[in-house]
Design goal:
Oligomer: single chain
Structural class: alpha/beta
Number of helices: 10
Distance between the termini: 13 Å
CATH architecture: 3-Layer(aba) Sandwich
CATH superfamily: Alpha/Beta hydrolase fold, catalytic domain
Strand content: 5-15%
Shape: globular
Helix content: 40-55%
Order of helices and strands: HHEHEHHHHHEHEHEE
Number of strands: 6
Amino acid sequence: MPHFAERGYDTHALSLRGHGASEGRYQGARLDDYIDDVRSVIRSIGARPILIGHSVGGFLVQHLIAESRFPAAVLVATMPASGPPLRIVLSTVTRHPLRVLQTAIRRDMWPLVATPELCREQFFSDRTPEGDVRRFCARMQGESTRLQTDILRKRPGLPGYRIPVLVLGAEHDDFSPDVQRATARRYGADCHIVQGSGHDIMLDVAWRAAADVVLAWLATRVPAVRDADDEPRR
Protein backbone atom coordinates (compact mmCIF):
# COMPACT_ATOMS: atom_id res chain seq x y z
CA MET A 1 0.00 0.00 0.00
CA PRO A 2 2.74 2.56 0.73
CA HIS A 3 4.34 1.65 -2.62
CA PHE A 4 1.11 2.61 -4.41
CA ALA A 5 0.37 5.61 -2.19
CA GLU A 6 3.80 7.10 -2.86
CA ARG A 7 2.93 7.05 -6.56
CA GLY A 8 -0.28 9.00 -6.21
CA TYR A 9 -2.91 6.34 -5.51
CA ASP A 10 -5.33 6.50 -2.61
CA THR A 11 -5.23 2.95 -1.28
CA HIS A 12 -7.67 1.12 0.95
CA ALA A 13 -7.51 -2.39 2.37
CA LEU A 14 -10.14 -4.31 4.27
CA SER A 15 -10.24 -7.28 6.57
CA LEU A 16 -13.30 -9.41 5.98
CA ARG A 17 -15.54 -10.28 8.92
CA GLY A 18 -13.70 -12.30 11.54
CA HIS A 19 -10.34 -11.50 9.94
CA GLY A 20 -7.71 -9.18 11.37
CA ALA A 21 -9.40 -6.74 13.75
CA SER A 22 -12.80 -6.85 12.02
CA GLU A 23 -15.93 -7.69 13.96
CA GLY A 24 -17.91 -10.86 13.45
CA ARG A 25 -16.84 -14.44 12.86
CA TYR A 26 -15.44 -16.16 9.82
CA GLN A 27 -16.72 -19.52 11.03
CA GLY A 28 -19.78 -20.31 8.94
CA ALA A 29 -19.35 -17.25 6.73
CA ARG A 30 -20.74 -17.52 3.20
CA LEU A 31 -19.51 -16.09 -0.06
CA ASP A 32 -22.36 -13.56 -0.07
CA ASP A 33 -21.31 -12.40 3.42
CA TYR A 34 -17.84 -11.51 2.17
CA ILE A 35 -19.20 -9.81 -0.95
CA ASP A 36 -21.41 -7.72 1.36
CA ASP A 37 -18.31 -6.81 3.40
CA VAL A 38 -16.58 -5.48 0.29
CA ARG A 39 -19.70 -3.60 -0.83
CA SER A 40 -19.86 -1.94 2.60
CA VAL A 41 -16.26 -0.73 2.34
CA ILE A 42 -16.85 0.57 -1.19
CA ARG A 43 -19.82 2.59 0.09
CA SER A 44 -17.65 4.05 2.85
CA ILE A 45 -15.02 5.12 0.31
CA GLY A 46 -17.69 7.01 -1.57
CA ALA A 47 -16.36 6.30 -5.08
CA ARG A 48 -15.99 3.30 -7.33
CA PRO A 49 -12.41 2.10 -6.76
CA ILE A 50 -10.08 0.03 -8.90
CA LEU A 51 -10.52 -3.41 -7.34
CA ILE A 52 -7.49 -5.56 -6.56
CA GLY A 53 -8.13 -9.01 -5.13
CA HIS A 54 -5.79 -11.87 -4.27
CA SER A 55 -6.72 -15.56 -4.38
CA VAL A 56 -10.25 -15.86 -2.93
CA GLY A 57 -10.24 -12.07 -2.93
CA GLY A 58 -9.88 -12.28 -6.70
CA PHE A 59 -12.98 -14.50 -6.76
CA LEU A 60 -14.87 -11.81 -4.82
CA VAL A 61 -13.70 -9.19 -7.32
CA GLN A 62 -14.98 -11.33 -10.21
CA HIS A 63 -18.44 -11.37 -8.63
CA LEU A 64 -18.38 -7.63 -7.95
CA ILE A 65 -17.41 -6.58 -11.48
CA ALA A 66 -20.15 -8.85 -12.84
CA GLU A 67 -22.84 -7.11 -10.80
CA SER A 68 -21.75 -3.45 -10.98
CA ARG A 69 -19.52 -1.11 -12.98
CA PHE A 70 -15.94 -0.46 -11.82
CA PRO A 71 -13.10 1.40 -13.56
CA ALA A 72 -10.70 -1.57 -13.57
CA ALA A 73 -9.80 -4.79 -11.78
CA VAL A 74 -6.57 -6.62 -10.97
CA LEU A 75 -6.84 -10.34 -10.17
CA VAL A 76 -3.76 -11.50 -8.27
CA ALA A 77 -3.10 -15.27 -8.21
CA THR A 78 -6.86 -15.51 -8.36
CA MET A 79 -9.16 -18.39 -7.68
CA PRO A 80 -10.57 -19.23 -11.12
CA ALA A 81 -14.25 -18.60 -11.82
CA SER A 82 -14.92 -22.35 -11.86
CA GLY A 83 -13.39 -22.83 -8.40
CA PRO A 84 -10.20 -24.70 -7.46
CA PRO A 85 -8.98 -27.08 -10.16
CA LEU A 86 -9.62 -30.72 -9.30
CA ARG A 87 -5.92 -31.55 -9.40
CA ILE A 88 -5.30 -29.07 -6.56
CA VAL A 89 -8.03 -30.61 -4.42
CA LEU A 90 -6.75 -34.12 -5.06
CA SER A 91 -3.16 -33.08 -4.39
CA THR A 92 -4.12 -31.53 -1.03
CA VAL A 93 -6.08 -34.63 -0.01
CA THR A 94 -3.18 -36.88 -1.04
CA ARG A 95 -0.50 -34.85 0.75
CA HIS A 96 -2.46 -34.03 3.91
CA PRO A 97 -5.36 -36.48 4.38
CA LEU A 98 -5.52 -36.12 8.18
CA ARG A 99 -5.51 -32.32 7.99
CA VAL A 100 -8.25 -32.36 5.36
CA LEU A 101 -10.27 -34.58 7.71
CA GLN A 102 -9.66 -32.11 10.54
CA THR A 103 -10.95 -29.23 8.41
CA ALA A 104 -14.14 -31.19 7.71
CA ILE A 105 -14.67 -32.01 11.39
CA ARG A 106 -13.89 -28.49 12.62
CA ARG A 107 -15.54 -26.74 9.65
CA ASP A 108 -12.48 -24.55 9.59
CA MET A 109 -9.57 -24.42 7.12
CA TRP A 110 -7.06 -23.65 9.88
CA PRO A 111 -5.36 -27.11 9.97
CA LEU A 112 -4.09 -26.52 6.42
CA VAL A 113 -2.10 -23.40 7.41
CA ALA A 114 -1.18 -24.26 11.00
CA THR A 115 2.61 -24.61 10.59
CA PRO A 116 5.38 -22.67 8.84
CA GLU A 117 6.03 -25.71 6.65
CA LEU A 118 2.41 -25.72 5.46
CA CYS A 119 2.48 -21.96 4.89
CA ARG A 120 5.60 -22.20 2.75
CA GLU A 121 4.14 -25.09 0.76
CA GLN A 122 0.96 -23.19 -0.06
CA PHE A 123 1.98 -19.54 -0.16
CA PHE A 124 5.69 -18.92 -0.63
CA SER A 125 8.57 -19.67 -2.96
CA ASP A 126 11.71 -21.48 -1.91
CA ARG A 127 13.54 -18.14 -1.97
CA THR A 128 11.42 -16.58 0.76
CA PRO A 129 13.54 -16.27 3.93
CA GLU A 130 12.54 -18.69 6.68
CA GLY A 131 12.18 -15.83 9.14
CA ASP A 132 9.62 -14.15 6.89
CA VAL A 133 7.63 -17.36 6.49
CA ARG A 134 7.50 -17.84 10.26
CA ARG A 135 6.54 -14.20 10.84
CA PHE A 136 3.71 -14.37 8.31
CA CYS A 137 2.58 -17.78 9.54
CA ALA A 138 2.12 -16.34 13.03
CA ARG A 139 -0.52 -14.02 11.55
CA MET A 140 -2.39 -16.75 9.69
CA GLN A 141 -5.87 -17.75 10.75
CA GLY A 142 -8.58 -20.15 9.68
CA GLU A 143 -11.28 -19.80 7.06
CA SER A 144 -14.85 -20.90 6.62
CA THR A 145 -15.43 -24.25 4.94
CA ARG A 146 -18.89 -23.02 3.88
CA LEU A 147 -17.09 -20.44 1.76
CA GLN A 148 -15.31 -23.24 -0.09
CA THR A 149 -18.66 -24.91 -0.82
CA ASP A 150 -20.10 -21.64 -2.14
CA ILE A 151 -17.10 -21.12 -4.41
CA LEU A 152 -17.87 -24.44 -6.10
CA ARG A 153 -21.57 -23.54 -6.47
CA LYS A 154 -21.54 -19.85 -7.40
CA ARG A 155 -19.58 -19.12 -10.56
CA PRO A 156 -19.30 -15.38 -11.27
CA GLY A 157 -20.90 -14.06 -14.42
CA LEU A 158 -19.16 -11.92 -17.00
CA PRO A 159 -19.37 -8.12 -16.82
CA GLY A 160 -21.93 -6.56 -19.12
CA TYR A 161 -19.59 -3.67 -19.90
CA ARG A 162 -16.01 -3.16 -21.05
CA ILE A 163 -13.58 -3.12 -18.13
CA PRO A 164 -9.78 -3.25 -18.14
CA VAL A 165 -8.64 -6.36 -16.27
CA LEU A 166 -5.12 -7.49 -15.40
CA VAL A 167 -4.48 -11.05 -14.28
CA LEU A 168 -1.27 -11.38 -12.28
CA GLY A 169 -0.06 -14.93 -11.74
CA ALA A 170 2.89 -16.50 -9.92
CA GLU A 171 5.44 -18.88 -11.38
CA HIS A 172 5.40 -21.19 -8.33
CA ASP A 173 1.72 -21.48 -7.49
CA ASP A 174 -0.86 -24.26 -7.39
CA PHE A 175 -3.07 -21.80 -9.28
CA SER A 176 -0.58 -22.26 -12.08
CA PRO A 177 0.33 -19.85 -14.89
CA ASP A 178 -1.91 -21.90 -17.20
CA VAL A 179 -4.83 -21.41 -14.81
CA GLN A 180 -4.18 -17.67 -14.71
CA ARG A 181 -3.93 -17.44 -18.50
CA ALA A 182 -7.29 -19.21 -18.77
CA THR A 183 -8.80 -16.61 -16.43
CA ALA A 184 -7.29 -13.86 -18.57
CA ARG A 185 -8.88 -15.34 -21.68
CA ARG A 186 -12.26 -15.44 -19.91
CA TYR A 187 -12.15 -11.68 -19.34
CA GLY A 188 -10.21 -10.65 -22.43
CA ALA A 189 -7.63 -9.46 -19.92
CA ASP A 190 -3.95 -8.68 -19.93
CA CYS A 191 -1.86 -11.31 -18.14
CA HIS A 192 1.55 -11.25 -16.50
CA ILE A 193 3.30 -14.10 -14.67
CA VAL A 194 5.61 -13.01 -11.85
CA GLN A 195 8.76 -15.08 -12.09
CA GLY A 196 10.19 -16.52 -8.88
CA SER A 197 7.07 -15.88 -6.80
CA GLY A 198 4.84 -18.16 -4.82
CA HIS A 199 1.10 -17.78 -4.35
CA ASP A 200 1.26 -14.91 -1.85
CA ILE A 201 2.73 -12.48 -4.37
CA MET A 202 2.31 -9.43 -2.10
CA LEU A 203 4.54 -10.92 0.62
CA ASP A 204 6.97 -13.00 -1.43
CA VAL A 205 10.40 -11.88 -2.61
CA ALA A 206 9.17 -10.54 -5.97
CA TRP A 207 6.49 -8.26 -4.51
CA ARG A 208 8.08 -5.03 -5.73
CA ALA A 209 8.42 -6.30 -9.31
CA ALA A 210 4.77 -7.41 -9.20
CA ALA A 211 3.61 -4.05 -7.82
CA ASP A 212 5.51 -2.21 -10.55
CA VAL A 213 3.81 -4.35 -13.21
CA VAL A 214 0.44 -3.28 -11.81
CA LEU A 215 1.50 0.38 -11.69
CA ALA A 216 2.74 0.33 -15.28
CA TRP A 217 -0.47 -1.36 -16.40
CA LEU A 218 -2.64 1.17 -14.59
CA ALA A 219 -0.70 4.04 -16.15
CA THR A 220 -1.42 2.80 -19.66
CA ARG A 221 -4.86 1.22 -19.27
CA VAL A 222 -6.69 3.32 -16.66
CA PRO A 223 -6.80 7.11 -17.11
CA ALA A 224 -6.45 9.33 -14.07
CA VAL A 225 -9.63 10.87 -12.66
CA ARG A 226 -9.49 14.66 -12.41
CA ASP A 227 -10.90 16.52 -9.45
CA ALA A 228 -12.41 19.99 -9.25
CA ASP A 229 -9.12 21.88 -9.50
CA ASP A 230 -8.13 19.76 -12.53
CA GLU A 231 -5.40 17.90 -10.68
CA PRO A 232 -5.12 14.25 -11.69
CA ARG A 233 -5.80 11.74 -8.96
CA ARG A 234 -6.21 8.00 -8.81
